[in-house]
Amino acid sequence: MWEDQIDTSEFSFKTQNYLQISEEEFLDLYDAQPSFGMFRDNYFITGVPTNKDINKQTADVKYQISVSQRLIKSRLPFRTSLLLTYTQKSFWDIYENSSPFADNNYNPGITLIRPVLINQQLKGGVALSLEHESNGLDSIYSRSWNFITLSGVYFYNANISLQGKIWAGVLGDENKDLFRYRGFGLLALNYRSYNDNFWASLVLNPSKKFNVVNTIVELNFKPIPSSNQYLFLQWYNGYGENLYDYNQYTSMVRFGLCIKPAMRNFY
User: Fold this and answer.
1) Does residue 266 lie within any of the structural domains?
2) Is there a catalytic annotation at residue 132?
């Protein structure tokens, strides 16, 4: 979240000393950036299942829109900054007659973030969020929960980052067993090439009893070096990909375009 909005062209990334800069300088740079920007990856992908017959009922389009607005600069207690965030993830049965949407997941939130600098090196950051997620439907079709997340990212070097995230919350009446399938957290490992043309990510999300590990594998390739648009391949395997069918097993491979925050993934 911090790197996404900062011009890092003046720094060298070809050493393990990642972003050599004092905390005060970093916060000044961050606060000087535009307050509105991308929060998570924004993408549009289409694909097919790997565990069932491929036809116009099982192929689909998935897209994500994710933005943030900085409400208060990094002058809150503990040098934190306050963000208003919004992420929408949609599943579109575009190949069926009338092309209906299978599910839309709306995820607004408010987030406190803080970078972590050690010996004048940016080593990561922490974020505390209050969020809501729902599919916007009512009655027996409603799926929703209100939750708190605590996440942290560690930059091993310019190429490798590790993210951990845990959550707890109050579940809606129609999805009381959501934690059984989505568990209470995730672990993500990201690799980025030095020239920023290639990204690879592995996300592991254990279920409540750790008998299933929901898995996401993502590969990104930038065909035009000066652009932030990537060719994007994603494989989702497990439960809870969307809210409406959170208790149904999914194995989908999709391909399309992704517009990424400047330097890394954030889940």
Assistant:
1) no
2) yes
Total tally of structural domains belonging to the chain: 1
Residue 251 is assigned to a structural domain of this protein: yes
Asked if residues 110 and 83 have their Cβ atoms less than 8 Å apart, the reply is yes
Q: Which of 134, 144, 161, 201 is catalytic?
A: 134
**Is residue 134 annotated as a catalytic residue, yes or no?**
yes
Q: Where are the beta strands (DSSP E) in the chain?
A: 36-38, 42-49, 60-72, 81-92, 101-118, 121-134, 144-155, 160-171, 185-192, 198-206, 213-221, 229-238, 250-259
Q: Does residue 267 lie within any of the structural domains?
A: no
Q: Which residues are annotated as a binding site for Ca(2+)?
A: 98, 142
Is the predicted pLDDT of residue 11 greater than 50, yes or no? no
Query: Residue 30 is part of a domain; what is its CATH number?
Result: 2.40.230.10
Is the predicted pLDDT of residue 111 greater than 90, yes or no?
yes
Q: Based on the number of CB atoms within 10 Å of its own CB, is 204 exposed (0-12), middle (13-18) or buried (19 or more)?
A: middle
Binding residue ranges: 98, 142
Q: Which domain holds residue 68?
A: 3-259
> Does residue 265 lie in a domain region?
no
Cα(256)–Cα(48) distance, integer angstroms: 12
* pTM for the whole structure: 0.90
Contact call for residues 151 and 164 (beta carbons, < 8 A):
yes
